[in-house]
Amino acid sequence: MTKPWTQTPTVAVVGGGLAGLATACALADSGLQVTVFERRPYLGGRASSYQHPSTGEVVDNCQHVLLGCCTNLIDFYQRLNVEDKIRWFDSLTFLEPGGRASVIGASFLPAPLHTAPAFLRASCLNLVDKLAIAGAMSALAPLTPKDTGENFLAWLRRHGQTDRAIERFWKTILVSALNEDVDRVSVPYAAQVVRESFLKSANAGRMGVPTVPLTELYGAAEGYVRARNGEVLYRATMKSGSFNYKMQHPLLKLLKQYNASWIPIELRW
Predict the structure, then answer these.
(1) Which residues pair with 267 in a beta bridge?
(2) Which of 15, 41, 214, 217 stands the most exposed, by the fewest C-beta atoms within 10 Å?
(3) Please, what are the domains in the chain?
(4) Hey, is 152 helix, strand or coil?
(5) pLDDT at 234 over 70
(6) How much of the chain, in percent, has pLDDT values that exceed 70?
(7) What is the DSSP string of 8-59?
(8) What is the largest CA-CA distance in the chain?
(9) pLDDT single digits (tens) 156-205
């Protein structure tokens, strides 16, 4: 039997990006006292917003979408009570130069063929493009490829993908989902997105788009952590080295205590 805590354990989470916030909220729910250290004056990491200096408009720093297969992220939004700030789309619209649109959505067919009719009708791709994409999908369908160090662009080239198929299909899907170009994405990660979003089910392929700035969306995590006796500390830069800090904080003393053995980091305030 697990012994009860004599005092509430404290945990430091370094970084207020999506992974750090999800970790902090889960630990706070488990009864731990959490402190999040974020070097910027806002939360969200790469999924954040800024105010344009000329227009004053709040702009997201990246294209941030999610898919129905992102069940952990959806659970995180539900935990923060911000799921109503996501707008869902049952189909994907591909726009060509000139404005012609191709809509790919689910049909009456079972997965993994549910998007096949709309895919075959798509005018943004020609027959050669579609045959190449179908061949690549067939290669990804049975099992997720192992990570050999090859990036996904090289994998696409090796599997006979045309320039138009890469630009109008693969990049549209993967850059939106992973916020990274295909020549910087590993094959297993790209394959997982394709398998989960296009081949698994119609619901898994739904696309969600935030209706509020990203900083507002993920800023809800601060209130969540604080409501559970945690803290969020901004402008806290952590680098390799030894501790160097001006602010007195109980967690800093705890971290410094173990610095020599397992936490080689530096705090600058």
Answers:
(1) 238
(2) 41
(3) 10-63+212-268 (3.50.50.60), 91-205 (1.10.3110)
(4) helix
(5) yes
(6) 86
(7) --EEEEE--BHHHHHHHHHHHHTT-EEEEE-SSSSSBTTS-EEE-TTT--EE
(8) 68
(9) 999 999 999 999 999 988 887 887 899 999 999 999 989 988 888 999 98
Hey, what amino acid is at 217? L
| Distance between CA atoms of residues 255 and 264, nearest Å | 9
What's the Cα-to-Cα distance from 265 to each of 12, 20, 202, 234, 252, rounded to whole Å? 12, 17, 45, 17, 11
d(CA 83, CA 63): 18
If you search the block for the tokens 């916020």, which residue do you land on?
179
Quick check: helix, strand or coil at residue 245? coil
Write out the two tokens for 177.
Answer: 């989902």
At 4 the pLDDT is 66
> What b/e sequence results for 94-124 when a residue is b if at least 16 CB atoms lie within 10 Å of its CB, and e otherwise?
beeeeeeebebbbeeeeeeebbeebbeebeb
Question: Does the pLDDT of residue 141 top 50, yes or no?
Answer: yes
